[in-house]
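step: validate -> pass
step: tokenize input -> pass
step: predict -> running
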Amino acid sequence: MSANIAEMERRRAAAALGGGQKRIDAQHAKGKLTARERLDVLLDEGSFEELDTYVEHNCTDFGMENQKVPGDGVVTGSGTINGRLVYVFSQDFTVFGGSLSERHAEKIMKVMDNAMKVGAPVIGLNDSGGARIQEGVASLGGYAEVFQRNVLASGVVPQISLIMGPCAGGAVYSPAMTDFIFMVKDSSYMFVTGPDVVKTVTNEVVTQEELGGAITHTTKSSVADNAFENDIEALLAARDFFDYLPENNRSGVPVRPTSDPYDRAEPSLDTLIPPNANQPYDMHELIRKTVDEGDFFEVQPAHAANIICGFGRIEGRTIGIVANQPLVLAGVLDINSSKKAARFVRFCDAFVNSDRHLRRRPGFLPGSGARNIMASSSMARSCSSLMPRQRCPRSR
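step: predict -> pass
step: emit ->
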């Protein structure tokens, strides 16, 4: 019995050490936390319950049978954020570059399955080079299973992805299907393939930041929602953001005690809107003076800034807010702002069921591109999904 306990403790220590102290030091030298350190910041202290700590890969090719690390490059389990249940997985870049193997994928699949069974959100901390090439098709099949669960969980439980390192290939397909993506400036990247491959195939010279950095994805492509300065700032923002989200599509929005009275008067709103219709004003000011305690979490603030999307609270209950921003393009709707708003409204339709629209705009952006009108119509369709549906009379 003592020998078994000693072996378990040895494996526990090996799992905690991941790829070894040298690789941990290299991770810290880049200004990045390890997989377990990230979970310590994200979750309530002492709340993490780990699953499959001692799982190892089953690959026997290319000498991989001699390179086994308990946990196989991903830490999975459940915990709480401000007392609310959440399922998490955190990829460990110190173990085979965080690459996904068959067993690695099974651990993630188990977490997502459990989250859907109990109706709890899923947060993924992604730091992976993609599929583990030594396992070939087996690792690609693992990605297919993860993608399938992303689809099944869509609209059922909230899914949040934090990109914490250079992610490529399959490691970015899955986050792209989740509801919200947070990135870290200068250390996290999302691209299908890296700059070297792009140069080989197309002869185009492009940097990692230009190809898939946090600024690129939060300003141009709109793949990511927010970019933060470092790991800790991103993780703390995720904790704050999590408080706005319901546990699932049936639980209703969370209610937080507030000292802000429901009948609070705000005289400054009387003079916020200028008497001249051609004079802009900042819609952020109106939003923060309307919601509880001025607490507003904006998503995609750097993309299509002519429309504002985010979460706030009224009487302690979460609401989704969509507002035209007169300071940018006079608040007109173009294709980017329409897509941004439609995507946000669809999430609110699935989970929040409480959406507020603040409008003051001259209309659609004119020009030769009819796509602006088409995109705006897609937003209108998304908004119409929030309207009460009338029952059609039964034909006789």
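step: describe -> Residues 387-396 have pLDDT under 50 and may be disordered.
step: cleanup -> pass
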